[in-house]
Amino acid sequence: MTDSRNDEVAPLQVLAILEDGEAKAAIQRAAQVTADVVSFSGTLEDGLDHAQAELPDVVFLEVTLSEAAGVALVHHLKAIDPRLRIYVLVPSERLELGAQAMSLGAAGIVMMPPSGDELLSALSDTRGRVGADAVRARLERESSRAQMQRSVASALSRLGASETRREVADRITEVLLEHTGADNVAVYVPAGERSRDLLRLAHRGMSEPPAMGDEMALHRFAAEHGLLTQKLEIGNETTGILVLGGLECYGRTRGELLELVSGQSAAALALIAAREQAQRGAMKDPGSSAYTFAYFVDVAGREIDKARRHGRRFALLTLTLEDEAAPEAFSVELAERVLATVRATDVLARVDDREFYLLLPETGGLGVHTLRRRLQSRLAGVRGGRRGEGEPLKTSIGTAVYPHDGSALSSLLRTAKRRAEASSTSLVHSLNAGPRPLDEVLEALFWCVAEKGEAVDADRLRTIELPLMDLVGLASAALSEAVRGGAARVVASQGPGLGVGAAVRSAPGADRGEVEITVTEASSLSGGRDIEALAIVAEHGTYALLGRRERGVVRAVHAADPLLTDLVLDLVTNKRNGSNA
User: Is 108 helix (H, G, I), strand (E, B) or coil?
Assistant: First the structure.
């Protein structure tokens, strides 16, 4: 073994497997002279176990042990470590055993009884070989480190050609995955000039890393998942943070590599920030009719101040084009379709090639929910080929409302992006499109949950089974929670006798003028027999439930999922039902 700080050979670990007392004493004296550490085993079994556990540098083996079974042990020891030096102790009358041991990989023969010179020579030879191996390993490490640094530096040199921060983040992720063996990478940059929150622009390998958070939150996430964090710094300015794991390098190599990545990445991000600052006077994004992100931050700040002073409300909407390979033209078309859908007073900003933020003054939860539905319908026509051809491009939309979802821009954006991610993975996407009866939709949802497992996130679809009376209580509680924030829209089915329809009609707050309740007879809906359906859109969120009654018990799926709410709402109002096909 060696000291990692230099190439000096540390004391050898010596294992002696023998019974002969005179040989033991000789080996002990030789080890004292060379300051090596010696351990003794009296049986072949004990010696093999010791070698597997301690991985010695050299073994002295008495081959006549157990009726010459020690010869076979040479093969087993070499299987543990092919570089292990094994010297066999052989009496003069059994030299043929030494020859057999040499053929199996022994390094040399020491005649019994062993002399000090022979033992010292064997230890010296081992020390030289261990030292040579250490030098060779160090040179290989240094060569590998230099080669890795050259390849990473070459790849990072292309960051300067990036146009956006997201493009920089994507390239950093690709470089780390390709050149360092990293299997988890996430890149975060400041959400705004005055914001302490960091926005995730790219990630690979990680399961649901935070979409946004401050520096301490990212450190906690990394610690919980056994990951590293690395600041991207240039001078005293932090331009971002890396969260990563699985690097195939350690110690000084890892530190040098992360320093290289940090410096190059920080410089590229600072360059883009300076470019954005220089263009700050430009209100419009040159590639579309949307506003710039810098202008959006200013407008949002003023809107928050007005809302605080005058008790106003407003909403935010984030829209992300999830197809990373989509050309520039599709991003521009998305902007055009959004602008054609929203009001003139709404502010659309282009964050980068695939992401847009929308500020909606004087808009509450019901209003932004309606807009989200309208946008999803309008954007469904943007396809991956020429217009009208190919597969529809996938977009994710998230919403947040002031003040229910936060009182700062960073917290509102964080909530909207979290909801967008939840919607993009909703199990509702697993259902086949087109009109279907209620009972078929319910069975399909049950099948999706059973196949993919119930998610632990409170916003995700899950199954419940409870008595009908408890379901009535659940519906009443859901409506009471909905009207707590003000206006609400409630859609329910009405079956025979007691059910969710009767529950919402008689629930506290149902008679408030700002609460819109629509109850449809289940018997009029295709597949609606014995079906209990409820959809609620409130200022601070959505809720949906769809289940079947059977002998006083209801088995249902429910979630605070906007897509499930849309589905149930359309089914119960006959907008997406088999009877209306």
Answer: strand
Q: pLDDT grade, residue 6 (50/70/90)?
A: very low
Q: What is the reported pLDDT for 537? A: 93
**This prediction's pTM:** 0.59
Which residue is associated with the tokens 């200013």? 298
The label of the residue with tokens 């954006």 reads: 413
A 10 A CB-CB count for 237 gives: 12
Which residue in 25, 78, 21 sits closest to 52, CA to CA?
Answer: 78
Do 339 and 347 form a contact (C-beta atoms < 8 A)?
Answer: no
Long-range contacts, 207-213 (Cβ 8 Å, 24+) = 208/421, 209/243, 211/414, 211/417, 211/418, 211/421, 212/410, 212/413, 212/414, 212/417, 213/188, 213/414
Which of 422, 340, 421 has its CA nearest to residue 375? Answer: 340
Q: How far apart are CA 55 and CA 537, in angstroms?
A: 67
Most confident stretch, 187-201, 274-288, 300-314, 445-459: 300-314
Q: Which residues of 1-37 are buried (b: 16+ CB within 10 A; e: fewer)?
A: ebeeeeeebeebbbbbbbebeebbebbeebbeebebe
| Cis before 113 (ω within 30) | yes
Q: CA–CA distance from 70 to each of 60, 64, 85, 107, 198 (Å)?
A: 11, 6, 15, 15, 64
At which residue do the structure tokens 């707050």 appear? 509
Asked if residue 517 lies in contact with residue 535, where contact means CB atoms within 8 angstroms, the answer is no
Q: Which two tokens stand for residue 307?
A: 């809302």
424 C-beta neighbours (distance < 10 Å), count: 16
Where on the phi/psi map is residue 100: left (φ > 0), alpha (ψ -120 to 50), or beta?
A: alpha
